[in-house]
Amino acid sequence: MDGVTDYPFRHITKKYGNPDIMFTEFVSVDGLVREVPRLFQEFRYDAQDHPIVAQIFGTHPENFYRSTVLLCSMGFDGIDINMGCPAKSVEERGGGAGLIQNPLLAKQIIQSVQQAISDYHNGYQSPLFQSLFIPSSSIARPITCSVKTRIGYQHNEVESWILKLLEAQPDRIEIHGRTFTQQYGGKANWEAITQAALLCHQASVSCFGNGDIISFHDAQEKAARYQLDGILIGRASFGNPWVFQASPPDLSWTEKFNVMLEHARFYEHAYPDRFFLPMRKHLGWYVKGHPHAKELREQLYLTNSSQDVAKVLKKFTE
Ligand SMILES: Cc1cc2nc3c(=O)[nH]c(=O)nc-3n(C[C@H](O)[C@H](O)[C@H](O)COP(=O)(O)O)c2cc1C
Fold this sequence. Notes:
By secondary structure, the chain is an alpha/beta fold. The chain has helices spanning 7-16, 29-33, 37-41, 61-73, 88-91, 103-121, 158-167, 190-202, 216-225, 253-270, 277-286, 293-300, 306-317; strands spanning 22-28, 52-57, 78-83, 144-152, 172-179, 206-210, 230-232. Helix 1 packs antiparallel against helix 10 (253-270), helix 7 (158-167) packs parallel to helix 8 (190-202) and helix 10 (253-270) runs antiparallel to helix 13 (306-317).
């Protein structure tokens, strides 16, 4: 998730939640082929983070091809194509949810990613980021091609939209039960999600559902009820890496504070040249439900280092 599921977030999530699969933030394929160094950093991960999927967005099949070869040589377990982002900057240029209105291009993009995975397996190596990364020899492990999308642009268009995607036979479709125009309003439409799952299964394609899931048990119940192969949990994981556990631990605030501090320290260690600012929102999410959440948040939003965080947390521990 853009601006949230960065390398430190994924590290903490894996350690305390251990989800079955994790996705990177989405990254522009146009930026990747221009070799913007910062974008390369978005794809950091550690061995224990597998299986991990790289998510990319854009509109140029050629750039999807080149980005996919790079990501395959970086060891990702899958390449996920974003066809659901409602952000103006992405959608108005025809990417993200904009692709729902251009199924022909969507299909070409899937085919480019599939071709790149196949060429990588046949030994083709990426020339991108040579100064930052030395590709290893290609490995014959399966790498999936998946699509993350929504149920339609303005209305539920699952029948036509999903069938179009299935023509390209991706390995998996992940579907958020809202339309583009809904953005994040209203409730996820799980009937439409199950409609998509049925079509996917007829084509022997996996289907994951997504939208408003709040716990592992909620996910399990929805997966069974709506015949899904998996569930993606998004916002409920903010400040709550334990959400992926079947029996989340009943933690004291001191224990939670320790994880917050660990997260802040890992962030600094991972990104020594970056501002601390993007870390603050995570700290704010962790303290949801604390009896002094408001004061705590006010002070955490002023921190500029993990040392500052430690000082604030100490005040609220005593
Ligand atoms: C801050 C934010 C960033 C997001 N970034 C992405 C993204 O990069 N790629 C993506 O596929 N979906 C992204 N999403 C959408 C989520 O993946 C998910 O589909 C949506 O939040 C609904 O699921 P949830 O109710 O479990 O959060 C983002 C959502 C939010 C709130």
